[in-house]
Amino acid sequence: MTKLSVNINKVATLRNSRGGNTPNVLKAAVDVQEFGGDGVTVHPRPDERHIRYQDVYDIRPAIKTEFNIEGYPSKDFIDLVLAVKPHQVTLVPDPPEALTSNAGWDTVNNMSFLQDVIGQFSEAGIRTSIFVDTDLRNIEGAVKTNTDRIELYTEPYATDFAKDREAAVAPFVEAAELANKIGLKINAGHDLNLDNLKYFNERIPYLKEVSIGHALISDALYIGLEKTIQLYKQQLIK
């Protein structure tokens, strides 16, 4: 069964809109696990507009499943990850002003940089994953960075799913097959939801984990977090 890691950034966004500590981000992390989530994902950004660096320190001791920290590997981010030691770090090429992740790494042109950063995390015993698109050149480059996994950037799939789901998923199937062949494990994330997740999971047999935040937290506003997590997990049964 593909694992579900719940990104709780949007819980922090709601909290930050009013100040204070409501909703409680730490409680959200604990609840995700108690309600069946296989992991918790956070993506701290330099402006701390949702998850704050202090949140990461506060959440870490409460994680009993898997903790995944996403972000651009600036010096502050690298220092945070090495201090907290999550189970997994996912490297994304977001500039500071990015509203959300909107592209994968050019692994060829950033090869040396990624090798250096991944080397630091690997030496600390932290599993690494890098955010990539379906360009096979970037998949081939990813393995040379010494990363453990890739995370396929699924926004193009989600955008085209309603028009032609077979055509939408085809590049991801090809990318996953190549990644599996050259020894990379595969995660996926971005705009996956209850409409498109099951089909994606069925077509990518090598999929290890999905990270879902915006859609899942939005669904939880209507049907509750516990039921929402269970509905998403049902989509991930092979």
Describe this structure in words.
By secondary structure, the protein is an alpha/beta fold. It contains 11 helices and 8 strands. The chain has an 8-stranded parallel β-barrel, surrounded by 6 helices. It is globular. The mean pLDDT is 95.
The total count of helices amounts to: 11
Helical content class: 40-55%
What fraction of residues sit in β-strands?
15-25%
Order of helices and strands: EHHEHEHEHEHEHHEHEHH
Radius of gyration, in angstroms, nearest whole number: 17 Å
Report the end-to-end length measured between terminal Cα atoms. Answer: 6 Å
Can you tell me the overall shape? globular
Query: What can be said about the biggest beta sheet?
Result: 8 strands, parallel, barrel
- Count all strands and give the number: 8
- Spans of 5+ residues with little confidence (pLDDT < 50)? none
What is the average of the pLDDT values?
Answer: 95
Q: Strand order, biggest sheet?
A: 1-2-3-4-5-6-7-8
Give me the secondary-structure category.
alpha/beta
